[in-house]
Amino acid sequence: MHGGLPGEIRQAVNGSNGTGSITWPESRRFAFTIMDDPDGQHLPTTRLVYSFLADLGFRTTIATWPLEPQRQTNSGGPTCADPQYRALLQQLKALGFEIGFHNAAPHSATREETLKALELFEKYFGAPPATMANHYNQEAIYWGPARLTGWRARCYKLLTYRRKDPEFFGHVAGHAFFWGDICRERIRYCRNFVYSNINTLRSCPWMPYSDPIRPYVRHWFSASEGAQGPSFVKTIQDRNQERLEEEGGASIMYTHFGHGFVNNGKLDPEFRRLMERLARRNGWFVPVSTLLDFLRERKGAAILTNKQRALLETRWLCEKLLRGTS
Ligand SMILES: [Zn+2]
């Protein structure tokens, strides 16, 4: 039915990109991980969620703000300036979890503040972050309409006009918020598009990929929708787990464990049930950068073509309009 399409688009539409043939380590049948941003988290929530994940054998990625807030914040959630929270992250790292970067602080940060935050990160965790996800700070990199190209960027601008979003400058050389060169030098992977399919690799067969027109990010990756408790639970429901395993795919769930996973000090029962079910499957449960390093080694480093970029962007824009994905 897609006979007229160029091969790479046909492959992406069908999902028959060879991802089914990936042989996962340790005879695992699929891969599953989580990229968790700290927005709205409180220490008891972090403790509860991560002891649950650790007990089940998951080893995922938790992104953090290393810098103490210097002014009014734009989000709730802890930073590494809290010694108890920092100690908890260090314990998680020792257990095999990955600590990622969510920009410098829960407010826009200048280049100097980002540099300071990355120094602190290295001091606290022993190495620069391998993985990052933009927070909605003005130093976010290739964010807002800059996630998209051509008509799609114009369309996005029109659609979000009423929201009065801030502008983003992390990739704009010479701007006070510019840090693209530092990002490229120190950070391996940056999250971009989020899709509704649990099998992230099916929505984005090329990840991790580099994009020649967005050179300040070394490699990009996509994720699957789970920004809040209800959308997370919807994406990992039983039949989707089964399909992920059947397809031999890879899932990188995008989330905020601070939003809708814990009520009155207890884990949401449906989240608990589904994660316990997933843990019993024969999956490879490693942090985001471990999974992406493996894919890069196995498939080679992908450089996005114009057609592939158009496909990823159009699909994301359509899903955002139809389903409100992140
Ligand atoms: Zn955030």
Set down the secondary structure blueprint.
Elements: H1 7-14, E1 30-36, H2 43-56, E2 61-64, H3 83-95, E3 98-101, H4 111-125, E4 131-132, H5 150-159, H6 180-186, E5 189-195, H7 200-203, E6 209-210, E7 219-224, H8 229-235, H9 238-247, E8 250-255, E9 262-263, E10 266-267, H10 269-280, E11 283-284, H11 288-299, E12 302-303, H12 306-323
Parallel strand pairs: 1-2, 1-8, 1-11, 2-3, 4-5, 5-7, 6-12
Antiparallel strand pairs: 9-10
Helix pairs in contact: 2-3
Bound molecules: zinc ion.
What share of residues is helical? 25-40%
Question: How many discrete domains?
Answer: 1
CATH topology: TIM Barrel
The residue ranges in which pLDDT falls below 50 over 5 or more consecutive positions are 1-20
**DSSP summary: helix tally:** 12
Tell me the CATH architecture. Alpha-Beta Barrel
User: What molecules are bound to this protein?
Assistant: zinc ion
- Residue fraction in strands: 5-15%
List the secondary-structure elements in sequence, H or E. Answer: HEHEHEHEHHEHEEHHEEEHEHEH
> Mind telling me the CATH superfamily name?
Glycoside hydrolase/deacetylase
Rg = 19 Å
Number of strands: 12
Global mean pLDDT: 93
Distance between the termini: 30 Å
| Content-based structural category | alpha/beta
Assign an overall shape: globular
CATH class: Alpha Beta
Largest sheet: 5 strands, parallel
